[in-house]
Structure formats: C-alpha cells, structure tokens
Design goal:
The chain is an alpha+beta fold and 735 residues long. It has 17 helices and 29 strands. The termini are far apart.
C-alpha cells in the first residue's frame, strides 16, 4: 500500500525535536570571526564622514568596512538585488536602517561593542515617509511580475456598467506594512578558499544565492557553494539574496577569515524586505438578482526609492478571473518613499488584494440583501474569463458547500447584530481563497543501491513545510518500497538545480522530477534484467517488468536488486531527470482554491474581538501527506488571523524609523488567539497542471482570512472596517 496521502511522520522530525538539526548559524567552521552591521539613523541624505578611531582601538577588532574601503562589486546578470546603496558601494542614504558599515572582530561581544562606537556624520535630506501624500505621483511598474504580464488589464466597459447598475460600491481598503518575523533570523557564515566561496546561509533559494554571489564577486557559479539543510521559517523574506549575505562574504574575503553574520531582530525589519502598505480602490456593482456587473480594482503599493530595485504587490490579479463578471478593469501603481525595498510575504498580492475584493463582495451582497455565500455562488466562474481558458481543475464549489456544511452556515442570522449571547456580539463571516499553481524546472538525481536503499538528491529547500518527507514519499511510492528505505538530500547548491521555494512551487516543481528520476533509475534496472541471459526476459517489453519491494519482478519470477547488480558487477544504478512546465499553462488556467468560514465574538462594551471558530475547505489537488498538509493549512490560517487583527509595522513620520522593530510590540498571534481550526481537503486529484496532480498549499490558506474576519466583524457589529488590522477602537461604540 502506497504512502502518498498518508499522515507519515516527518522524516526530519527527530533531528529537530532533539536539537540535532543544524541551522545556518550553527555550523562549526575553524578560525571563525564575527561581523556586526552598523545601520543609518536617517532616512535620506548622504554620509559625510566616519569617526572610527575609538572602534578600531577596541580589543579584538579586525576590520571595519565602510563605503570608503569596501570591495567594488559587480552587477552581473542574475543578481537579484541592486548593488548600489545597501552594499556599501557609495555614501547615499535612502532609508533609515540602511547598512553603512560592517565591524569584524574575533568574538561576537567585541564586534557588538565596537559597532556601538562607530560614529557616522550625515548631511540630512527631507525624507518621504507619507505614502498617502504621494499617491498623485504613483507610477507604473517597469517590470510587473518580472515582465511576465502588464500591470493593467481591462475587459468590457466597467465605468458604464457601474453607472447603470442597481447596487454600487466605491470604497478604499488599506493594508499596512507587515514583517515576516520567522523564528530563525537571517544568518550567514562565509568562507573563502582561494577563489572558491562557501556560504552557509538561511535561504529559500539556494540556486539564486549561488547565482547572486557569483555575480557580485565576478565568479562562475561553480566557484560558489551554498549550503542550507534547514530553514527556521522564511515566509518570503529569505527568497532573495539580501545584502547581509554578500556583506558577510565581502568581510570574509577582506579579512581572510571565515565570517559569521547574524542579524538582530531589529535589523530584520530593515534588511530583508516586508509586505508593503497598499491602498486599494474598489468600484463594484451588481443587479438586484446579485449578478455582478462591474469590478474595478486599482492598487497602490508602497515602494522604496526606485534605484534600490522594484517590487509591486500584485493586489488585483485575482479580481481579473475569480468571479463571472463581464466588465473588469485592474491597475497597479507604485509609490516611492524612503523605505527599504519590499518583497514577497506569504501569499504576496493575493493576501492583501483578496482582503479588498472579498470585503467588497460582502458589501455588495449586503446591498442586494443576499446571503454572502449565495452571492458568491451566483457569480461562480466556470472558466477564466481573463485568460479565456478553462481551469485545469477547480473544486471551489465543493469548498463552498463542504465548508458551509461543516460550519453550520445555514443557521446564520441574516442581519448584522442579529446573533448575540448576553453582552457578546456574534458574527459569522466567509470569504474565498485562491492562489496560482506555479511550477518551474527542477532536476533530481536518484541512486538505487545494491541493498535496495534509495538516495534522492535535489538542491531544493525545506522551510519546515515537509519537503524532506513528501519527496521521500513520492520516491518510495514510485519504486514500491517503504519510506524508511529512502534518504532525500537537499539544501546544497552542489546538488542538482531546483527553483526557489516561493509561490507555493516546491511540491509542484520538485515532486514530478523525483518521480521522473525514480522511473528512469527503475528503467535502468529493467534493462539490466532484460539483458541478463539467465532470466530469460530478453524478449519481454520493459513494461512487463516491475521494480518494487527491492526487486525486479517479471511474469514468472523475481530477482532481488542486490542479486541483479552483483551479477552485473555493479554496486548501484543512478539516473538524473529534469521536469518542468509543459504546455499546460497555454491550455489551462492554473489555480488552487478554498473557502473560509469564521465566527468572531465581540465584547459589546470593550470592543475586544476574538476568533471563536474556524473552518477552512481547500482544493489542493492530490495531497501528498495528510499531516504536513494540515500543518500548512493551519499555519496559513493562523498567519491570516495575525494579518486581520494584530500585525502592523509602525514608521515614525519624522525620521522614517520603524518604531516597533521587535516581537514584543510587533504583535503576532499566540496560542490564546487561535481557536480550534477545522480543515477540509476536498477530493480533487487533478492531473492536468502537472504529472502528479499536486498543488502548492503554503500560501493558499492565508488568502481570504482577513476578509472573512472583517466580514464576520461587520455581521457582529454592523461596523464595516476597511483598514487592517482591525482594532478595538474600530468597533467601540457599535453596541
């Protein structure tokens, strides 16, 4: 019986719970020294000088790197980040918290003490910190979605349809700056051996880090090795190769010693991106029967100064296709400020954008006096009208019906403030989830040994999502052996190439490559068996032989792999296979779907909002592991609860400084904030988007959570909150 879909325990679980999993900062490297970053205290201007005498005179200090003595780096093809400001290449200051120096000493304490003595003189310029004041200067992204598509789209005539419709909505939704805050901070150990560089770093993209570092230092990628067997959380902030990685390598080259650089929690707020603030303008309309007539979604996204790079939060992409609507227009614009460069954060675009869209859908349903679920079903899209294609698979209707049944949605009182227990207002809300099914090229190497054990290798990453485990399951089932006979190796750029672990693409990309490589290795065993004259299988087609249970099995007999290899004088067979997208994207629209149902309870006097019950139903294609999948779904919903009620990065308007750069004042959910979460995986073992029929599940469950909670708060209180996070003061006075 196969293991795919079963709740197999994590194969790396024992290492983690016993403390034997080695993270980036924990590797033992001889002759190691320590680096500490010094960051700017202004948001705009220029460095006019440094006072380094006191810091240099302190015990153990080996080197202080500033823009005056830093190595000159290159901007080669494939480098992910702009070289200019964050890598000590000039004296310009573009945001508060920008790296301005690196102090290297023989111990961490000495490096910290010396860094505190570095004095920097500035010429201060006026900083732009108010995004709203700059909306009239918003500009079109130069390379939206890496140039894969235009920033704007339109079908029909949304303006005319809006004017003629019965129910109309013209509102603005706002989401704040949010930070990832993984448990493990960014950390790098860098060592040079001649012209070869090895880095141990916490990354979601081993191959990307290899390419970026090679480009910066003028090396061939083969001269750079990146190692990362475990990641203590990332959520997107470890997808790019941020400046501290390069600065650690620079310090190692300049000192001739291996260098460790670990960011402080405060430095994590300015060193590796964040979810940008968005202002989203929604104009929508519907007829009395609930049929959508128009949707216009204009998204404005906070950006850094353009010469740091470009990142646009693609908030309106789901609006293009999610509902059957004949008149749709979307646009995306950037607003330049003196802030660091934003980046991907769990479900980038969809998490922020669906808060606006799904809140607006709820508002329209209320205007036409229609149940929010019935309204969504009324406007269900069987095909993707934006791309003009059928979906590869779509089980959203099953997500609606199964989620609603499990939640007991039929018992919902229609009117706001109609459900109450004593002094507690009860609200039920729901929302839709969707996220693209992404797939990229990945390569896997498989070796089947004489003892029947299997080694599978790919240069992918495990962020704690279960990559080690599910890839072992795919290999085991492909070869018909127990999972215990498989060892999966990842986390090393010396292994076959795999894409970044982002966009929920790891399983759809790497798992088919694992299956293909295992099939190729099994094919070599079949060929060996057919060429063995003693077995008499020479005239058989290869399909007549099976490789399973540690043997090659024919119609009349079986031979153990060990015996077969011994007879041929081999100790193993191996195979390498690459798997990547075919023409499925040309033929189909590729998305995963889900639905959220939530109960909130609001204290009528205090305004305190508590999430009391939660049901999420999801279409993720073929599940690979029921246990790791449930963990992903619960984790995404928890992340969404934080977005809805707690998380917000505060920036001082005068200085551009983040004032809650810690996890005491940047509030994230804890156990007491999270109810029991029921997750439902609807049956949909689709196969049209990739050979295994799998869809990524890391980001989908977060999408729509904030809207579902905001909609529930409205149902409880009658107060429509269009700005996140929802605060006590937003609902006080509603009693």
């Amino acid at each position: 019986m196969g293991s795919i879909g079963k709740p197999i325990d994590r194969v790396d679980g024992h290492l983690k719970v016993t403390g034997h999993a080695t993270y980036a900062a924990e590797f033992t490297v001889p002759d190691l020294v320590h680096a500490v970053l010094v960051q700017s205290t202004i948001a705009a201007g220029r460095i006019t000088g440094f006072d380094l005498a006191e810091a240099k005179s302190m015990p153990g200090v080996l080197l202080i790197i500033t823009p005056d003595n830093a190595l000159r780096l290159t901007q080669a093809k494939g480098v992910q980040q702009a070289v200019k400001a964050p890598l000590l290449q000039d004296r310009d200051i573009l945001f508060n918290g920008q790296h301005v120096a690196v102090v290297v000493a023989d111990t961490l304490d000495r490096a910290l003490a010396a860094a505190a003595r570095v004095r920097v003189r500035y010429q201060r310029d006026e900083a732009v910190t108010d995004m709203d004041a700059m909306l009239d200067q918003a500009y079109v992204p130069k390379s939206f979605r890496n140039g894969a598509r235009p920033a704007d789209s339109r079908r029909g005539d949304p303006e005319a349809a809006h004017d003629a419709a019965f129910a109309k909505l013209d509102v603005t939704y706002i989401t704040p700056i949010e930070h990832h805050n993984p448990m493990e901070p960014h950390a790098t150990i860098a060592r040079w051996q001649g012209d070869k560089l090895t880095v141990w770093t916490s990354t979601q993209g081993i191959s990307g880090a290899q390419t970026t570092l090679a480009g910066h230092f003028g090396l061939d990628p083969s001269q750079v090795r990146v190692i990362c067997p475990f990641v203590g959380g990332g959520f997107g902030c470890k997808g790019n190769t941020w400046p501290p990685v390069t600065l650690a390598a620079m310090a190692a080259k300049m000192t001739g010693r291996p260098v460790k650089l670990v960011l402080t929690r405060a430095q994590m707020f300015t060193s590796n991106g964040y979810r940008p603030r968005t202002v989203q303008k929604l104009r929508a309309s519907a007829e009395t029967d609930g049929s959508l007539q128009s949707l216009r979604h204009d998204g404005f996204s906070l950006m850094s100064q353009p010469n740091l790079g470009e990142f646009c939060e693609p908030v309106a992409l789901s609006t293009e296709f999610l509902y059957a609507c004949p008149n749709v227009a979307v646009s995306h614009r950037l607003v330049a400020t003196n802030m660091p460069l934003p980046t991907y954060m769990r479900a980038p675009g969809e998490a922020s954008g669906m808060f606006a869209l799904e809140s607006a859908i709820d508002e329209l349903a209320a205007q036409v006096r229609m149940d929010p679920l019935a309204f969504r079903m009324r406007n269900y899209a069987e095909n993707d009208a934006h791309e003009g294609k059928p979906y590869a698979s779509k089980a959203l209707m099953a997500c609606y019906t199964q989620g609603a049944q499990a939640f007991g949605w039929k018992a919902r009182g229609a009117a706001p403030r109609s459900m109450r227990e004593g002094n507690v207002l009860i609200g039920w809300g729901m929302a839709t989830a969707t996220y693209p099914t992404n797939r990229q090229k990945a390569t896997v190497r498989v070796r089947i040994a004489a003892d029947g054990s299997v080694l599978v290798q790919s240069g992918t990453q495990d962020l704690g999502t279960g990559t080690y485990t599910v890839m072992s399951q795919v290999a085991a089932d492909t070869l018909g052996i127990p999972v215990s006979r498989v060892r999966f190796e990842l986390g090393d750029s010396a292994l076959p190439h795999a894409p970044v672990s982002g966009g929920s693409s790891t399983v759809p990309s790497v798992a088919p490559a694992v299956a293909a490589a295992c099939e190729a290795a099994a094919g070599k065993l079949r060929d060996l068996a057919r060429s063995d004259p003693h077995l008499g299988w020479g005239d058989l087609d290869a399909s007549a032989l099976q490789v399973r249970e540690g043997a090659v099995i024919g119609p009349d007999r079986r031979i153990a792999i060990a015996a077969l290899l011994a007879r041929r004088g081999q100790s193993f067979v191996d195979a390498t296979s690459e798997s990547g997208p075919g023409d499925e994207k040309k033929r189909f629209s590729l998305h995963a779907f889900g639905s959220h149902f939530v109960e909130v309870r609001v204290d009528a006097d205090l305004g305190e909002i508590r999430v009391a019950r939660y049901v999420g139903a999801f279409d993720v294609g073929q599940p690979l592991n029921a246990k790791t999948l449930r963990s992903q779904l619960i984790g995404g919903i928890t992340y969404g609860i934080g977005m809805a009620l707690l998380e917000e990065t505060h920036v001082d308007g005068e200085t551009g400084r983040i004032v809650n750069a810690n996890i005491a004042e940047y509030v994230v959910p804890v156990h007491a904030d999270i109810p029991a979460i029921e997750t439902i995986v609807v049956e949909n073992a689709e196969s049209r988007s990739n050979p295994l029929g799998v869809k990524g599940a890391g980001e989908l469950p977060m999408v729509g959570v904030a809207a579902a909670i905001a909609n529930a708060v409205y149902h409880a209180t009658g107060m429509r909150v269009r700005k996140l996070p929802i605060r006590i003061e937003d609902v006080l006075g509603s009693a």
